[in-house]
Amino acid sequence: MSLIVIPDDAPPVLSQSDAFAQLRDVEHRVYQTLPPDSRELVQRIGDADAAINIRASTPFTAQVLAGCPRLRVISIWGTGTDHVDLAAARSRGIAVTNTPGVSATAVAEHTLALMFAVARQTVNIDQAVRAGEWPRAMVQQLHGKTLGVIGTGAIGRAVARLGAGIGMHVIAWSFNQHGGYSWVAFDDLFRRADVVSVHVRQSPETRGMIRAEHFALMKPSAIFINTARGRVVEEGDLIEVLRSQRIAGAGLDVFETEPLPANSPLRLLRNVVLTPHAAGITREATEAGLAMAIANVLAFRAGTPVHVVN
């Protein structure tokens, strides 16, 4: 029997979407709680040939895949694959798909919003006005400044377009340098940029790739933005440079540990704007991504697989 299982729709997203109607005529099962451990995940998907993964906090390890002999495809809602053992999946003939590009505009807009919020000190000024003050902060404008984009995939390209659209000069660094950008060396980007914005996937190659030595190169007036993955950055090094006000500030949507721990020093720093890994969560991007995640399974079953990452 063919069966699609959604093991981690918690809080419910897929089951409350318009895209869910695509599963009306196929056998499926939805769990609206997160699997507490790998054993429970195997119990949920062990009899399925397809799994649609909603939450990146659900790890598809080699051990999990070994316990699911019928599984043939894992469809990820989103682009990140760091929670799936791609090599183990490939060795077992399990295709892994994702939903590239659907949230690029949403994440790019959020990135720009963080840039403005940090540069304009929007959160601090809002709090001051609510407290009865009438501050006259000397804030930064972004027009005419240099935006350094790290990673020029769909999101990085969208951020570059928006930056150029408000009059910023865009420089870029990427593993694969294609397109008409002003390419610079990795270290040089940190030296030259007024805003550094990160848009690379988490992988063994990128984990911890941005650390103290790079923050030390940044201008004192510079801003650091991360809407990619928290573990791309050595978070302790970033906290130190923000605490010492070595750079002007940061806008962060992603963190080393999520949700952000109650004792994280980032919560106390006034030169940081924090959002809860929500850059890609707009109504439009959510519906498009969920529809693609379902379509990827149906295409795989039809013998015409698309968006396979392994």
- The mean pLDDT is 97
CATH class of the largest domain: Alpha Beta
CATH architecture descriptor text of the largest domain: 3-Layer(aba) Sandwich
CATH evolutionary superfamily of the largest domain? NAD(P)-binding Rossmann-like Domain
Widest beta sheet: strand line-up: 8-7-6-9-10-11-12
Shape, per Cα inertia axes: elongated
Strand content: 5-15%
The CATH topology of the largest domain is: Rossmann fold
How many strands?
12
Low-confidence stretches: none
Q: Assign the structural class, choosing from mainly alpha, mainly beta, alpha/beta, alpha+beta, or little secondary structure.
A: alpha/beta
Radius of gyration: 21 Å
- In percent, how helical is the residue content? 25-40%
Question: Number of domains in the coordinates?
Answer: 2
Order of helices and strands: EEHEHEHEHHEHEEHEHEHEEH
What assembly state would you assign to the polypeptide chains in this entry? single chain
Helix count from the secondary structure assignment: 10
How far apart are the termini?
Answer: 25 Å
Biggest sheet, in brief? Answer: 7 strands, parallel
